[in-house]
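From: lab user (bench 3)
To: helpdesk
Subject: output format question, protein + iron/sulfur/oxygen hybrid cluster

Hello, I'm new to running complex predictions and I'm not sure whether the block I got back is the full result or only part of it. Here's what I submitted:
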Amino acid sequence: MFCHQCEQAAKGIGCDVMGVCGKKPEVAALQDNLLYGLKGLAIYANEARKLEAKDPAIDVFMLEGLFATVTNVDFDPARLEAAIRKCFEMKEKAKALYLKASGGAEAEGGFFQKLKAFFTGDESKPAQEVAAPAAWVPAADLAKQGDQYGIMTFHNDADIRSAIEILVYGLKGMAAYADHCQILGKHDDEVYAFFHKALAATADPALGLMDYVELAMECGKVNLKVMGMLDSAHIERFGSPVPTPVQLGTKAGKAILVSGHDLLMLEELLKQTEGKGINVYTHGEMLPAHGYPGLKKYAHLVGNFGGAWQDQAKEFDGFPGAIIFNTNCIQRPAASYTDRLFTWGLVAWPGIPHIDGWDFNAVIEKAQSLPGFPDAPGKEILVGFGHDAVLGVADKVIEAVKGGAVKHFFLIGGCDGAKPGRNYYTEFAEKVPKDCVILTLACGKYRFNKLDFGDIGGIPRLLDVGQCNDAYSAIQIAVALAGAFQCGVNDLPLSLILSWYEQKAVVILLTLLHLGIKNIKLGPSLPAFISPNVLNFLVENFKIAPISTPDEDLKAILG
Ligand code: FSO
Ligand code: SF4
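Helpdesk reply: Thanks, we reran it on our side. This is the complete output you should expect:
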């Protein structure tokens, strides 16, 4: 195996014996095989779409297939094998669509003709055979087959391979958000078309470095649309988040802990647990759920438990109820809680019961068989500062900036992780001067969201904007402030101090680059999949810089 798609890549190079995340070589090979099959599916789906032939089942499967290969999602070989076989079915469906739409023959100027022209050596060879992923057929041993499709086979040129990887990881991250959208009933043809076009392009030997760089930027653009769709889907269903205190203590009663990002799954669980004496707690990226009127109305959504994802193995032992993951980040479960752990959606761990569909009875029964919590009230933290809440007090904020009460805004956000060096973010937040406001989002906030930051004239100094996908909200806030001050976002007194871990962070970064946002500080380390030349390109064009020390960075930013 060789994988370096996340920040945990072993030795900063890549995992080649076993994933630091717990991904075994067999699972890595199956994911590589699935990704290869998805490229084949994308080639046909893209060609079919050009002829106005499409199928919603193909569009949704593309999202699910990509999402299953994101870090800390699917560790279950059996589920991955089933996905690979379904991928083949979908590819055959897309091929049939394409052939039907093209009248049974290759369309003029189509992908296969281009390939034929490229490989001038063997004109007799059917073009479909040359477009290797399009000709992919699952073998009897799917893991062994996947071994030939590792990321090093993406391209021989290190820079082109790096650009292709950035695009592929961007697509994976965006697939996660688009999957949440489709679960909420939101679909967008332009988004689906881009997935097919971009993934097909990764198998096109006629393309060069700048083609992939442009596609990566376009991925950032499309992702802005996807995050916007998810934002409106959440608001339509649950109302706009409002500032809400969240209990970190416990309430007497049986308990269920929900981890992940899927708010619709949480709502369904809240409905099914109502009146049953079960209290529901959020974990990790579910924390922002407390701010949504349509979710906070459930009195048995009682609080938040634990820290960010990387602490789960030591914290879940102390949760005396059932635990369910609805998206990443799951880690190898410790023996002390495997008997009360469940997965849902695309998350899976071998041997852990998976809930297919929307019936959470098994989870409820498990919670009822466990002791639950006593009453032990704790500290409260504030969440719910989405774009509507913040822009609702925009006048106050603008006045505070103009009057000099607020000097600077820092967006300290992104993913948390297990590697050392992430204390930087805690220290940075602590050292931010008292006349500055901190916006935060995603699971990296657990490094400092339980500290007291106080307020500036009634404006809390720490504003929790939400989940990682709520980067959309932060962008809306920045754009509105830029409008009010009649300047560009880069001219605002705003600095972005980001932490990354997995592929959703990659696609958010692409969105920020697409928007032309410069001077981002990125840590705790730079991605192993960025080649030195591609890094130079990013530094020259976007002035991205790795984090150094909180003191040095603060000094450089605030002068
Ligand atoms: Fe974190 Fe995990 Fe939300 Fe990620 S819980 S690391 S970027 O999945 O998606 O922020
Ligand atoms: Fe290693 Fe990250 Fe890949 Fe897991 S996802 S194998 S930790 S690089």
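A quick orientation on your result: The radius of gyration is 24 Å. Let us know if anything else is unclear.
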